[in-house]
Amino acid sequence: MSEGPVQFTPPSVIGQEPNGTLGTIQLAGASGGANWNGAAFDPETGMLYVGSRSVAFVADLFAPDPKRSDLRYRAGMREIANGPQGLPLMKPPYGRITAYDLNRGEQAWMVPNGDGPRNHPALAALKLPPLGDATPSAVIATKTLLFVTEADKSTPRSPVNVGGTKLKALDKATGAIVWSIDLGVGQNNTPMTYLHDGKQYVVVSVGSTDYPAELVALALP
């Protein structure tokens, strides 16, 4: 957890001159960090589990056509700031799950969530471990496990060619993967769990630009 005030760098106005400004690179970006998906809390252990991602994007302002707007400046497209060959500008992990011990005020563990770009042609020969996907990760804590999603490739404001299709269960104490299933498509929300006729279910919504939206329910036999 960060200490003290967080520095804010405002968007810059795009310059028209040859060496004019091109915008301000912001990290983790408006949709990065732990934005959107929330966290999971275990009241028995005092552990907080957070999914987060790093998505650098360019925040810019420009002067609109005075015939169409009376604003002096308006926001630009907020484009993703990619590095060489489309790879991220910063070091991995690009998506992660972090556990915080609220009793001690300390980080207990952090693990990458998803493969990330490790199969990119520029990286594939290195045989890297999972680098984490820069898509939103959702978590839900049960009494024994932490269920974690991999968001779909079509998630807004995500880099291209990212996103996963696995739903995983992690060891709450270490972050180690104890079970996973490939659903063939990314998950787009926080899972829910409920008990019916003595059986516990975990349900998550899936869908993509090339896959119809549906709910998937899982349970032990």
Word description of this protein:
This protein is mainly β and 221 residues long. It has a domain of 152 residues: Lipocalin (Beta Barrel). 0% of the residues lie in helices and 37% in strands. The chain contains no helices and 15 strands. The strands form four sheets. Strands 1, 2, 5 and 6 form a four-stranded mixed β-sheet that branches. The radius of gyration is 20 Å and the shape is elongated. The mean pLDDT is 88.
User: What is the name of the CATH class of one domain?
Assistant: Mainly Beta
Element pattern in H and E: EEEEEEEEEEEEEEE
Number of strands: 15
Query: Poorly predicted ranges (pLDDT <50, ≥5 residues)?
Result: none
Helix amount: under 10%
Give a short account of the largest sheet. 4 strands, mixed
Overall body shape: elongated
Structural class: mainly beta
**Beta-strand content estimate:** 35-45%
Radius of gyration: 20 Å
Mean pLDDT level: 88
Quote the distance from N terminus to C terminus.
Answer: 40 Å
Task: Provide a count of the helices.
Answer: 0
